[in-house]
Amino acid sequence: MSHSLLPSPPQYSYSSTATKTLRIHTTALNRTNLTNSTLQTTRAMGEGTLNPITSTLVHPRWSLRGMTALVTGMRLWRNCWAWVLTVHTCSRNEAELDGCLKGWTGMGFRVTGCVCDVSSRVERERLMDNVCDVFDGKLNILINNVGTNIRKPVVDFTEEDFSTLMATNFESVFHTSQLAYPLLKTSGSGSIVFVSSVSGFVSLKSMSVQELPKVLGNKEYLEEVFARTPLRRLGDPEEVSSLVAFLCLPASSYITGQIICVDGGMSVNGFYPRHD
Question: What is the pTM (predicted TM-score) of this model?
Fold first, then answer.
């Protein structure tokens, strides 16, 4: 999954059609306390809370209202659930980040951001310091959504290439989750969602270095891929963000440690088209 941050995501993103998700709750006791608090809030407010978008009542179990989230990567959070969340995000590109933040705050989103290259340990620590300050030491949701790729044959990889991949795709996720743990615990209930590509779930012999340009640039090949996908199309980033939002809801609190693919059924058949 690309980690580039764009003001307006493309209509379709093939690499976004599959995610690996993991939900972690800090402690069972804290989850119980949150549930009791939610029930008390429900009784006090009646049937539920008012959805600011649809003007309908929403039960607290189906609402993210009042929660805080750190999203390392901007595409996923651009869904209606962002209206009731307070989000902090990051980018390596300051000009791009500033442009996005200006547009999103103008649309009414509660979002802040800072410049950060998550492949750097020092910058990850600085990022978490910013999050701690912005959210007063409490964080409800961490979404690890940054990833990168180097598309060239494996035999041509340099030591620097390999280090870049590992620092961005593996080390940053582990360390960011580790840094976020105290803030998640303080919030009373924390959720962590990891987003990855389908190649983490099924074997793709060379997708990571050669196949993606071939798929997106070859109409005939793309049509064959559609034929292997039950829904006959590529996925939209918002279809991924919808699952991410669901996994962060109190209503999904019993889902943890699971891998869920959002790929139109492609992983059931396997990625590569038939060649008769």
Answer: 0.74
List beta partners, residue 141.
69, 191
pLDDT of residue 124: 97
> So what's the pLDDT on residue 216?
58
List helix spans (H) across the chain. Answer: 28-45, 94-106, 121-134, 159-166, 172-187, 212-217, 219-228, 237-248, 266-269
- By DSSP bridging, strand 191-194 and strand 57-58 are unpaired
Distance CA 135, CA 114 (A): 14
At 95-117, the pLDDT tens digits run: 989 998 998 889 888 999 999 99
Residue 186 has pLDDT above 90, yes or no: yes
Are 238 and 82 contacting, i.e. CB atoms less than 8 angstroms apart? no
Tell me the domains of the chain and their CATH numbers.
14-266 (3.40.50.720)
* Phi, psi of 257, rounded to the nearest 5 degrees: 65, 30
What torsion do the CA atoms of 44, 50, 51, 57 make, to the nearest 10 degrees?
80
Q: Is the dihedral of CA 172, 249, 66, 17 positive or negative?
A: positive
